[in-house]
Fold these 2 entries.
Entry 1:
Amino acid sequence: MAMARLLCAGADVWLNTPQPPLEASGTSGMKAALNGVPSLSVLDGWWIEGHVEGVTGWAIGRGEGAASPGSSHTSDAHALYYALERLVLPVFYFNRDRFVDMMRYAIALNGSFFTAQRMLQEYVTKAYGAAAVAAAIPPGTQDVLPA
């Protein structure tokens, strides 16, 4: 936690470059968003949902999916440098007001939506189903809970 605090506090843009579809949970990018840091990431994991181009951050590439085995990743590198040179750096250096708005949108849109509460609720309802919900309700209280 201490290391994450230092990394997020010192970041202007959160760079995330896993090889699709190998993104883990994406919690580092979510934490960055809560701290007002726009993301620059491949379209994988949570960023598929949280990405609003030029608003909450930027995509690297177009979400083409996994690179073929043994590829040189040349196209990935070109996509990253294109995004940095043509999208990210011009806003960061020459349109500071827009970048500050993006910081605010990262908090307002992604920070308010990608929460631990939502994650747990989705795990319970989508992964574990009604049996988990029923098991979580103490016996004798079913009729006092709101419908």
Entry 2:
Amino acid sequence: MAASELIRPGNKKSFADEVEPNLLTPMNEMILSLTKRIKMTDEGGKFLAKLAQGADAQEEHIVWSFCGFALLLIIFFYGFSLITTLVAWVYPLYRSCQSVREHEEQEKWLTYWIVYGLVSFLFYFLDWTIYFIPCYDVGKLALYLYLWHPTTNGAVFAYNRYIKPTLEANSTSTKERKVIRRT
């Protein structure tokens, strides 16, 4: 579909329907889930509806605004390293809980936590030696996003490319080799 067709009046398709998930797709899933949970309580639903009506905005936009404001406060008071930790933990934890509950993508999220553990272990030793490199925290943030983002599946790639061959090469028993090959 051409861009001119997307902006015609009366066209029901949006640009979001035509492209692959973008960087904000996981965050949008969490915001929609948070909005639903706020609406589950009477007080929260009424408060959110009043704010949305007063601001002449959608309820999801109000929740986005509050989350953005909270993010700015965290950066202001605690610095960027806390944001990096939140990126590495919040969405993966949310999706891991969903996968356990729905019995879907469990292997993917277990793989993420294995790779995350190894990366965190490496950063424990590297942080004090390379922290002075400009934009180091931004690089860490980008690495964690790469590891869990649905469009990249970096943790699965890293596991299959580096960790799994190392485990296979160093396994001692036949039973260990069967378990490693099965994954």
